[in-house]
Design goal:
Structural class: alpha/beta
CATH class of the largest domain: Alpha Beta
Helix content: 25-40%
Strand order of the largest sheet: 3-2-1-4-5-6
Largest sheet: 6 strands, parallel
Shape: globular
Strand content: 15-25%
CATH architecture of the largest domain: Alpha-Beta Complex
Length: about 325
């Protein structure tokens, strides 16, 4: 765990500043929930802007403060002005600067004081201060702790955003890194009168028909490696086009094969023109972070990671995946 100097940061935030809050490309519920919770905590005293690299699924649009989020892609000139004038930049839910995608250059060149709050392994050293704990299930849980250390009061909007972040990144509180502290925090957030049932409905029961069409395809493409206790499935870029893919439609697909009895490792591939994007999920001691770093130019968490293979098609990727999986299992 890496801890920041809370006293110093508290002094830093004691005077009015221009603050940017940003996160990784294709923000998920934890990235947005953490960013908006911090936004609501700081907006009364500071000039604060949340800027994200690109758009995100519309099933997050109900979140308090969503209408204040700036999308960098397509608004580069406007966002660059805000970034270049920033006194402080918070980097949330990312451990590497490249994960901010096309924002990375202007962010790296910024003279602002930089603070990272994140729960991924091996954080890159590009910030002045870093609060990092890979044992925590979500960045939102770290933001909860940060706000407490800063002696910032919570309110209903902050509670909704933090609850959303914790729920989405913890698999609705079912992943192994959920602790009793996680449950205590969610209980405290619920004390602000948030409608947790409506939050779950907005997140998980507001899907597009295109998602079900693509789900049918991945089930047809499902392959089982019984001896290796592994399942893989895939989509082609043409599938996304043919079924009118919308951002967020494939969210959670990689988790589905883990519901099959005996499967401990699931891989999901999407073939694009320039290569294969992949997501990995596992149960128990199968470390997909090490697997992704070793063979697929990626990384993440022990039980959740991803990677990319350039200039590969699905057929060649499956062959390669099969061979390196057997090699990896012989060494663990």
């Amino acid at each position: 765990m890496l801890n920041i100097d809370f006293y110093f940061v508290k002094q830093l935030l004691s005077k009015k500043s221009n603050i940017i809050i940003t996160t990784h490309k294709s923000p998920d519920g934890d990235a947005l929930g953490s960013s908006l919770a911090l936004f609501h905590s700081l907006k009364h005293k500071h000039n604060v802007r949340v800027i994200v690299p690109n758009n995100y699924p519309d099933y997050f649009n109900w979140m308090p403060g969503n209408n204040k989020v700036l999308i960098y892609e397509g608004n580069e000139d406007k966002c660059d002005i805000w970034i270049n004038n920033a006194d402080i930049i918070f980097f949330l839910d990312l451990n590497k600067l490249y994960r901010t995608h096309t924002m990375s250059v202007v962010l790296r060149n910024s003279q602002a004081y930089k603070i990272m709050i994140d729960h991924h392994e091996e954080p890159e050293d590009f910030c002045d201060q870093t609060l990092s704990d890979p044992n925590i299930c979500s960045t939102a849980e770290l933001i909860f702790a940060f706000l407490s250390k800063m002696e910032f009061s919570l309110n209903k909007s902050i509670a909704i955003c933090l609850y959303t972040g914790i729920i989405t990144d913890s698999g609705s509180l079912r992943y192994p890194n959920v602790t009793s502290e996680t449950h205590l925090k969610t209980a405290e957030l619920m004390s602000f009168g948030i409608n947790h049932s409506m939050i779950h409905q907005n997140l998980f029961d507001s899907q597009n028909k295109s998602r079900l069409d693509l789900l049918k395809v991945i089930l047809i493409n499902l392959k089982i490696f019984k001896k290796e206790k592994t399942a893989i499935t895939f989509l082609m870029e043409s599938d996304l086009i043919n079924y009118n893919y919308k951002k967020g439609d494939t969210e959670g697909f990689v988790n589905l094969p883990l519901s099959i009895k005996g499967i401990v490792f699931s891989a999901f591939f999407i073939q694009f023109e320039d290569g294969i994007k992949m997501s990995f999920r596992s149960q128990g001691n199968f470390d997909v972070n090490l697997f992704a770093k070793k063979y697929f130019n990626g990384g993440g968490h022990k039980n959740a990671s991803g990677g990319f293979l350039k200039d590969r098609n699905v057929e060649k990727t499956i062959e390669y995946f099969s061979s390196v999986l057997k090699e990896y299992l012989l060494k663990v």
